[in-house]
Write a structure and sequence with these properties.
- This protein has a two-stranded antiparallel ribbon.
- A hairpin with a 2-residue loop joins strand 1 and strand 2.
- The protein contains three helices and two strands, in the order αααββ.
- By secondary structure, it is mainly alpha-helical.
């Protein structure tokens, strides 16, 4: 991308570019890198969503037989039936 194209694009997008020459050079390098990536033969490679794909590392979701809600409610400063009781705020 040359400087004139960059300035025109920036003007259309209403962007203020402080150093268009430096940005044009960066764009050129980026486009060169894209060209190199397009030249790489990827035929036959499986698509991937992550460079280091690993299996599910979470535990199996199995219900436990314990109900600790009563123990939690017992620790509350005040409660009413099976609810925490808090002072009115308004």
């Amino acid at each position: 991308m040359n400087v004139n194209e960059l300035k025109t694009t920036a003007q259309l997008a209403m962007l203020d570019i402080p150093d268009p020459e430096k940005l044009a050079q960066a764009f050129s390098e980026m486009l060169d890198n894209f060209s190199k990536m397009m030249a790489v033969d990827v035929e036959g490679l499986e698509p991937t969503t992550h460079a280091l794909a690993q299996g599910n590392r979470l535990r199996e979701d199995v219900p436990r037989g314990t109900d600790e809600s009563e123990a939690v409610l017992d620790r509350a400063p005040e409660r009413e039936d099976r609810f925490f009781k808090i002072p009115n705020v308004l």
